[in-house]
Amino acid sequence: MRKITKLFINIKTEQDWLARQKGWKLVKTNGVRYIFEECSCEYNYEYIYFDKSKKELEGIRNQIIDRDIEFVCHSSSWALFRKNAAKGEIHVYADNYIKYKILMKKYNTYMALGACYLCLGSSQTAVASTVNGYFRLSSILFYLCSFLFFMTSYCFKKYSLEYDDGSYAGRMKKEKRGK
User: Fold this and answer.
1) Which pLDDT does position 179 carry in this prediction?
2) Is 51 within 8 Å of 18 (Cβ atoms)?
3) How far, in Å, CA of 162 to CA of 96, rounded?
4) All structural domains of the chain with their residue ranges
């Protein structure tokens, strides 16, 4: 067994780092602490985002057509899968468009939440100027929350663009018009 503590900001970088751990396979991670077992194979890894629901995670696992893909673990809203590198590239979703759509849905949700909290912060600032200073603290907290939502949405957008071949945004617009 080998335990490593490491923090990644970019998921693609983390997946590449995991693939470079030759002679070791990942057994478990919480996103910061990685536990490896010694093995003779090399693996490719892929993270998949899901909505923290065990039912959705099971749905993702049941949709996997390639039986060489193994589920490793999940932490928070991310599930980690691996595939023996000798058996080819790993693609949990056969179509990257599906992954792109899921991530863009999260992006839009977090952008909307960020905008709501920004509006709440503005209203608290207005109330604080007329009533008393207690509302100043709440407005600062709302602004902080909106900043965090905007930063999270940026991460979703950046991650989704890694799977875009340049045509996905147009494809999503056509699908919305067709509904």
Assistant:
1) 60
2) no
3) 10
4) 2-87, 96-168
Order the strands of the 33-38 sheet from edge to edge. Answer: 2-5, 33-38, 24-29
Whole-angstrom Cα distance, residue 81 to residue 61?
9
Spatial separation of the C-alpha atoms in residues 120 and 118, rounded to whole Å: 5
Please, which residues have CB within 8 angstroms of residue 168's CB and are 6 or more apart in sequence?
A: 97, 100, 101
Average pLDDT over residues 152-172: 81
Express each pLDDT in 105-139 by its tens digit: 888 888 999 999 888 888 877 777 666 666 777 78
- Which backbone phi and psi does 44 adopt, to 5 degrees? -105, 145
Q: Does residue 95 come out as left (phi exceeding 0), alpha (psi in the -120 to 50 range) or beta? A: beta
